């Protein structure tokens, strides 16, 4: 069986307009044929449905970038260990996926397209399963963590610090999935907001969003001493090892978390790169971490923090959306850029940086999609709840 990336992409583009119905059909068929698999997923499947298509989009559009695809799928495979996914599950998901594509493409489905999808799926499943097997030799499927800090920084925002019971390996800029005792099987993604610390503690910036069960529980019902579960670290928005360029970090809201981790990493590496950290918020009082950032900037001559507020005329400082003020702040064309925040803000900022002349390989982003947020089709990343494509 051979893989033709063009056929996979073209046929997937035909399916995209029908993605909500196709996703519902996929899960319906999967659970009808394998009722035992239902127990791996959370009771509410809304986030899950987006998640499947987001992951498929990432895989399909990365078919021509084998390294990025392998990194993504390996992370996914390691992450799926926490669901107790087995090799047989991969086969069940593969069959349901092909059945879904066949049904929704109708007479546009050809034996060549089927062959290409089967090959793509087989390769993806092998990478995910292989990474999971290798990971099982050295790491647990999930980590138990004790909440050791809980700071309310606003009506709907908290900085939550957790100490994992065992060492949790990660790099600055990565994210993990997190589960609270109150909502079993409901995993949500959060970036770790600090560079690795000697005592292993990890901090998260959490905004309680409407309809966000896990984020609300973390902000409103979590106290020091509570336990949470953490999945393995994932994501490629880490410091580019082969570059010593100065950095431009552009944050929107709690998207600040991974960028703060990168800033701390630059400090841990000796502060040899200049960093401009542009921090966007809707209102002045949404700049929930500004005192800490300004303290860091006062200590570190290589760091400049630029707060920007979009919707608050009483704010005494720079006004606008982060994507619109970059040119005013400086010329960043020779820098390595990192962008994190709401999907629309990431898309706008990435577009603006490209228009300003930054080549795409120097613009890093890792669109996270937390509860209640809609995926931005051309950005990579994946949503975290139950198993995804569960495994192939
Ligand atoms: N908590 C975490 O660990 C992480 C969160 N994120 C994402 O960051 C986002 C944070 O949400 P909130 O704190 O509620 O932020 P928010 O919705 O209050 O927005 C923050 C900033 O983004 C700007 N913005 C919004 N829409 C824009 C657009 N279309 N173009 C340009 N700028 C725009 C706003 O002007 C503001 O400066 C969420 O989407 C979350 O998924 C991303 C990475 C990590």
Automatic annotation (TrEMBL):
<keyword id="KW-0479">Metal-binding</keyword>
<comment type="similarity">
    <text>Belongs to the globin family.</text>
</comment>
<dbReference type="GO" id="GO:0008941">
    <property type="term" value="F:nitric oxide dioxygenase NAD(P)H activity"/>
</dbReference>
<dbReference type="InterPro" id="IPR009050">
    <property type="entry name" value="Globin-like_sf"/>
</dbReference>
<dbReference type="Pfam" id="PF00042">
    <property type="entry name" value="Globin"/>
</dbReference>
<dbReference type="GO" id="GO:0020037">
    <property type="term" value="F:heme binding"/>
</dbReference>
<protein>
    <recommendedName>
        <fullName>nitric oxide dioxygenase</fullName>
        <ecNumber>1.14.12.17</ecNumber>
    </recommendedName>
</protein>
<dbReference type="InterPro" id="IPR008333">
    <property type="entry name" value="Cbr1-like_FAD-bd_dom"/>
</dbReference>
<dbReference type="GO" id="GO:0019825">
    <property type="term" value="F:oxygen binding"/>
</dbReference>
<feature type="domain" description="Globin">
    <location>
        <begin position="1"/>
        <end position="133"/>
    </location>
</feature>
<dbReference type="GO" id="GO:0005344">
    <property type="term" value="F:oxygen carrier activity"/>
</dbReference>
<keyword id="KW-0561">Oxygen transport</keyword>
<keyword id="KW-0411">Iron-sulfur</keyword>
<dbReference type="InterPro" id="IPR001709">
    <property type="entry name" value="Flavoprot_Pyr_Nucl_cyt_Rdtase"/>
</dbReference>
<dbReference type="InterPro" id="IPR001433">
    <property type="entry name" value="OxRdtase_FAD/NAD-bd"/>
</dbReference>
<feature type="domain" description="FAD-binding FR-type">
    <location>
        <begin position="140"/>
        <end position="240"/>
    </location>
</feature>
<dbReference type="GO" id="GO:0051537">
    <property type="term" value="F:2 iron, 2 sulfur cluster binding"/>
</dbReference>
<keyword id="KW-0408">Iron</keyword>
<keyword id="KW-0349">Heme</keyword>
<dbReference type="InterPro" id="IPR017927">
    <property type="entry name" value="FAD-bd_FR_type"/>
</dbReference>
<dbReference type="InterPro" id="IPR050415">
    <property type="entry name" value="MRET"/>
</dbReference>
<keyword id="KW-0521">NADP</keyword>
<dbReference type="InterPro" id="IPR000971">
    <property type="entry name" value="Globin"/>
</dbReference>
<comment type="similarity">
    <text>In the C-terminal section; belongs to the flavoprotein pyridine nucleotide cytochrome reductase family.</text>
</comment>
<dbReference type="InterPro" id="IPR012292">
    <property type="entry name" value="Globin/Proto"/>
</dbReference>
<dbReference type="Pfam" id="PF00970">
    <property type="entry name" value="FAD_binding_6"/>
</dbReference>
<keyword id="KW-0001">2Fe-2S</keyword>
<dbReference type="Pfam" id="PF00175">
    <property type="entry name" value="NAD_binding_1"/>
</dbReference>
<dbReference type="InterPro" id="IPR039261">
    <property type="entry name" value="FNR_nucleotide-bd"/>
</dbReference>
<keyword id="KW-0520">NAD</keyword>
<dbReference type="InterPro" id="IPR017938">
    <property type="entry name" value="Riboflavin_synthase-like_b-brl"/>
</dbReference>
<keyword id="KW-0813">Transport</keyword>
């Amino acid at each position: 069986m051979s893989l033709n990336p063009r056929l996979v992409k073209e046929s997937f583009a035909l399916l995209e307009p029908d993605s909500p119905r196709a996703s519902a059909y996929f899960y319906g068929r999967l659970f009808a044929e394998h009722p035992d698999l239902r127990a791996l997923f959370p009771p509410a499947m809304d986030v899950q449905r987006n998640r499947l298509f987001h992951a498929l989009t990432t895989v399909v559009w990365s078919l021509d970038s084998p390294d990025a695809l392998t990194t993504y799928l390996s992370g996914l495979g390691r992450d799926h260990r926490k669901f107790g996914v087995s090799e047989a599950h991969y086969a069940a998901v593969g069959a349901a996926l092909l059945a879904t594509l066949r049904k929704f493409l109708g007479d546009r489905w050809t034996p060549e397209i089927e062959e290409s999808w089967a090959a793509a799926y087989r390769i993806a499943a092998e990478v995910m399963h292989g990474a999971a097997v290798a990971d099982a030799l050295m790491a647990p499927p999930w980590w138990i963590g004790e909440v050791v800090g809980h700071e309310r920084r606003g009506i709907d925002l908290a900085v939550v610090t957790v100490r994992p019971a065992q060492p949790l390996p990660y790099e600055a800029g990565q994210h993990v999935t997190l589960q609270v005792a109150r909502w079993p099987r409901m995993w949500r993604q959060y970036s770790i907001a600090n560079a690795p610390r000697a005592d292993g503690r990890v901090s998260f910036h959490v905004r309680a969003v409407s309809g966000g069960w896990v984020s609300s529980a973390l902000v409103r019902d979590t106290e020091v001493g509570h336990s949470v579960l953490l999945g393995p670290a994932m994501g490629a928005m880490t410091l580019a090892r082969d570059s010593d360029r100065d950095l431009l970090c552009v944050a929107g809201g709690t998207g600040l978390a991974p960028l703060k981790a990168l800033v701390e990493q630059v400090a841990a590496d000796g502060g040899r790169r200049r960093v401009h950290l542009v921090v966007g918020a809707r209102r002045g009082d949404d700049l929930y971490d500004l005192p800490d950032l300004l303290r860091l900037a006062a200590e570190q001559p290589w760091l400049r923090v630029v707060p920007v507020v979009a919707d608050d005329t009483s704010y005494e400082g720079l006004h606008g959306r982060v994507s619109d003020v970059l040119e005013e702040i400086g010329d960043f064309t020779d820098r390595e850029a990192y962008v994190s925040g709401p999907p629309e803000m990431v898309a706008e900022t990435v577009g603006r940086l490209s228009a300003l002349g930054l080549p795409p390989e120097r613009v890093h982003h890792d669109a996270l999609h937390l509860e209640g947020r809609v995926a931005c089709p051309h950005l990579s990343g994946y949503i975290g709840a139950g198993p995804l494509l569960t495994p192939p």
